[in-house]
Design goal:
The complex is a heterodimer of chains A (263) and B (313). Chain A is an alpha/beta fold and 263 residues long. Chain A has nine helices and eight strands. Chain B is of the alpha/beta class and 313 residues long. Chain B has a single domain, classed as TIM Barrel. In chain B, helix 5 links the parallel strand 6 and strand 7. In chain B, 52% of the residues are buried. The chains are: A alpha/beta (263), B alpha/beta (313).
Amino acid sequence: MLIIGERINVITKAQRQAMLDRDKGPIQEMAINQVKNGAGMLDINIGPAEDKGDELMDWIVKTVQEVAHVPLCLDTTNPVAMEAGLKAHDNSWGRAMINSASGEEERLNMMMPLAGKYNSLIIGLTLNKQGIPALAEDRCAIAAEIMGKAVECGVPMEDIYLDPLIMPVPFSQEKSLESIRAIRMFKELNDPPMKTVVGLSNISNGAPKTLRPLLNRVYTALLMYEGLDSAIIDPLEREMIEVIKTVDILMGKTLYAHSYLEM
Amino acid sequence: MAFVVPKETYNGKVYEVEIGTGPRAVKIGGEATLPFLAFEGAVPNKPVIAYEIQDVPPEDWPQTIQEVYKDVSSDPAKWAKYCQDELGAQMIALRLIGTHPDRQNRSAEDAAKTVKDVLSAIDVPLIIMGSNNAEKDAQVLKSACDAASGKNCLIGKAQEANYKTVVASAMASGHKLIAMSDLDVNLAKQLNILITQMGFDKDKIVTDPMSSALGYGIEYTYSVMERIRSAALFQNDQTMAPPMVNDVGMYVWKVKETMAPEADQPAWGPVADRGIGWEATTAMGFLMAGSDLLIMRHPKAVETVRKMIDELV
């Protein structure tokens, strides 16, 4: 499974400060560390970045790819910054991913054409103006709208990563099963099956700190069983990576060797 | 409607490994497709055949091949030069079989001298192999590596029992490495992981899945090779991405079919033809499974296999 490292994020204090100061050190260090621990792609979350977002995105994409030879998942709601990132992205390590479009008309109309123009991958969040539908069937309906827009913009189905959206188990326990069901149903929307992605850690939001890693790990295993293709997670959480590698082994996606955890 | 050839897509590619120095250095591997399917992916290098020679006269080889080399085989340097100049070898594989404790038990110093002599006689790349005695190979290959320092040779074979010393020697003198495990895809992966954990680059390894002769377990080698290659190409498993080598001659030229005289087996036909055919056919099987490098003995078998490669690539 593709691991998308989540640690370069405007929400954390050290990374935000480095972004503001245009200080390469902490950002590059975090990039290298995540790749070393199994990330195949890095999420670059600069937030809404209303002030000079394009300049920041251009700088950070180049800064990260200078040391980390992986593709990036560009995470911002600012379309101007998104385009700057796509322009700056070095595709020799793989194509960039847009994080994200959704069923909201305005956002879909802004982001999907960029995926067509820059031949990039794109995440489609299955929510719309009314929020996240309770039923997997209704999330599939939104997925279909996203897929329709992709056809219009010349984006192939295999470049879309559908995200069923994960709800915190402490607040809406019944939803955790529904998101698993949505993964299974997304896969059936196309042949070859649609690709899928989740922002995993939301499952444990609001749970005690000691429980969160366990909830995250077990939920990941369940989603992977249904065919989850990628997840935005913290690659520095060693036990999570171990679970992912082990599920990949048990599902025959990687070849077993006694030292499989070390690769 | 026009016919469209269905094409498979691949996620990974085999590492390209360069052996030797100067204008006659040779690259193997690098393919991004299954064997001979160049319409589905790049095949930058044709499979290469190395001529096998050894440090002592080949008294245990069947008459069919002893005969070919009888004028040169008492001197490894002459023998190597003969293969290069007269037979057009792209690569030479020197087996230090005489160092085996049950054979002549030659010393590591003797082996080093042989390596130096051979290297000074040829300019094609050299593969240096021990006698497959894990304990003795650890010393012999260390001396051989030192003697060949800077020549970018392919050293073998690192196995589970001795990989630490062999890897350290190859790394210290800048050589490439053959990693061999016993006909098991998971052990092959494990050995590659252990070797890279010592700091040896994974794109300097050549995998030996352990060969076998036609009629004597070739299907086991074949299926291990298939699984190694599909892990590299479909699962993009970088621990399984080294090119593969097959040590063909040593397995073929000891089976009954390559040795039994026609007088004993009249229905089988002339022994020489049989042996050559057996070696060529075994090698062709390995090519179909994804072999990048073949170590062979008889010039006529080599010629046949090379023709096949030229026609298919």
